[in-house]
Design goal:
The longest helix is centred in the middle third of the chain and has 23 residues. It contains 6 helices and 2 strands, in the order ααβαααβα. It has a two-stranded antiparallel sheet with strand order 1-2. Among the domains are: about 30 residues; about 60 residues. With about 130 residues, it is mainly α.
């Protein structure tokens, strides 16, 4: 059943209000940190090497002795742990040079404006391309 004209208008008004007032809830900013493809690949390779070392330690345990197989297993586990941490840790984006005519927001806190007002202002500047 399609919406009536009044219901459609009310829905459009609610959407505009949500986008205007609660912009940070609708679309959270990604910040200045992102996952690095290079670190993701290195982490995956290190994870696979760690799994290989762990399996090798278990498979060669009877031939190398229990102490050596435990050491190889611990090293493999540590490699897997470091690989996962490397793969999922975001890195800081390196921003390009800022043009000389770009507006730099003041660093002084705005005590008179509420938190949501400041967030809405940031959203509006972001939407305007500033």
């Amino acid at each position: 059943m399609p919406l009536s004209e009044q219901e459609q208008r009310l829905l459009d008004e609610m959407e505009r209000h949500l986008l205007h007032n609660d912009a940070d809830i609708v679309s959270a900013p990604s910040g200045d940190r992102t996952l690095s493809y290079r670190n993701l690949v290195y982490g995956a390779v290190l994870l696979l090497v760690g799994v290989g070392a762990l399996v090798a330690g278990v498979a060669l345990g009877s031939q190398l002795g229990p102490v050596v197989s435990i050491i190889i297993g611990v090293i493999g586990f540590a490699a897997m742990l470091v690989g996962v941490i490397l793969a999922v840790t975001p890195v800081r984006r390196t921003g390009g040079a800022v043009p000389s005519d770009a507006k730099v927001p003041s660093q002084s806190p705005q005590n008179s404006a509420s938190f949501m007002d400041r967030m809405n202002d940031r959203w509006d500047r972001r939407q305007d391309g500033h």
